[in-house]
Write a structure and sequence with these properties.
single chain; alpha/beta; Rossmann fold; 7-stranded mixed beta sheet; about 45% helix; about 15% strand; disordered C terminus
């Protein structure tokens, strides 16, 4: 009888990218017939789910930086990517060859070298995208039809959640721009002023502390709460009854967290596929409002003034009562559908099971043929 399939998961070295791939690895182990290993560095090994074995490779980068999410402005991003490849590529080949049975590699799309390593080892490879299907399909369509266009916890309850416990239902605006999208000092100043001017209690999380936020870790005032320099439990925050809106950069992890929690968004994309995610949220699903219109690179780089921030927050929370109410109904309906998709027997779980079956087929498990996807 053939050996069971073993999947080697390789996440990118950034917490926002590590979490979804690690969750997929835990899900893969859930069927009892598939094995999984996460290949990463010692720093991220501590964040891996306890149910998944970890293979840790030593990683060294100038300044001791280990998480791309927290890389300071003066550090070289390309050098970090090069160091990650130099560490993980040979470790991946070693991890694959350590298994005598059927093996497949699942890697973050950012790790462009991983498919080559899998191919050289003679095993199947699956690319894990941290962007959504809408954005991915849009980029493929642009590439095909407009090739001249370039797409630009028994632990103590977290103090943030304790603060939210004291707020009225649906009253709080949550603002966070993810772990890798930093704002300038001028923009941070305007964002803070805009949140205060909105008149709504707010929770503002800045995962990577900057020069203007290093003087405090977290601070609560009559206006709201500011948390800087640490990770916040975003999914729990968005699921809290007090949160009524989310000012977001539209990164896909954040989009999924918000929609599954049934929370509408004020959209503020900064780069990559975030602009496509904004179009999905505002124009297609109609569960978001734009903070500002973007027609050029200059619009992206321009500082958004406090009054525009306050205006967007007002519109999101209660501006045009009927419109805001309809938006909340739509996003709550989407939340029900989203949670059902990832539940036992849901479409997302079924899709994952089919993918595992196809990978097994490549090694003689089940069907002899596999349609290349």
């Amino acid at each position: 009888m053939p050996a069971p399939l073993h999947l080697v998961f390789v996440p990118f070295l950034a917490r926002s990218h590590f979490a979804p791939l690690a969750a997929a690895a835990a899900a893969a182990c859930g069927d009892g017939a598939t094995g999984a290993t996460i290949l990463t560095t010692p720093h991220f090994a501590a964040l891996a789910p306890p149910s998944v074995p970890v293979r840790a490779a030593p990683f060294s980068f100038p300044g001791g930086h280990e998480d791309f999410s927290l890389l300071p402005d003066e550090a070289s991003a390309p050098a970090f990517f090069f160091a990650a490849e130099a560490t993980l590529a040979p470790a991946l080949a070693e991890a694959v060859r350590a298994h005598a049975g059927a093996v497949a590699v699942v890697s973050d799309a950012v790790l462009h070298w991983a498919p080559r390593v899998a191919r050289e080892c003679g095993v199947p490879h699956v690319t894990f995208h941290t962007i959504g299907a809408f954005a991915a399909a849009s980029m493929v369509a642009v590439h095909l039809h407009r090739p001249d266009v370039t797409v630009t916890g028994a632990a103590e309850r977290d103090s943030i959640l304790q603060w939210l416990d004291g707020q009225a239902a649906g009253s709080v605006v949550y603002a966070c721009f993810g772990s890798t999208c930093g704002l300038s000092a001028d923009q941070l100043k305007e964002l803070g002023a805009g949140l205060r001017a909105s008149g709504k209690p707010f929770l503002w999380v800045i995962p990577a502390a900057t020069e203007g936020t290093k003087q405090h870790d977290e601070r609560a005032s009559g206006h709201g709460m500011v948390v800087a320099g640490r990770w916040a439990p975003q999914a729990e925050i968005l699921a809290h009854r007090a949160v009524g809106g989310f000012v977001s950069h539209c990164g896909w992890n954040s989009v999924l967290d918000a929609v599954c929690a049934g929370v509408p968004l004020a959209t503020w994309p900064l780069r990559a596929e975030q602009f496509l995610n904004e179009a999905l949220l505002v124009d297609v699903l109609r569960v978001g409002v734009r903070v500002r219109e973007v027609g050029s690179k200059a619009d992206v780089e321009a500082v958004v003034p406090a009054d525009k921030v306050a205006s967007a927050v007002g519109k999101l929370m209660d501006g045009g009562a009927d419109e805001a109410a309809a938006r909340r109904v739509r996003v709550r309906e989407l939340g029900v559908a989203g949670r059902a998709a990832v539940a036992e027997g849901g479409s997302s779980c079924s899709d994952w099971a089919r993918l595992v079956d196809e990978l097994k087929a490549l090694h003689g498990h089940g069907n002899d043929a596999l349609t290349d996807k």
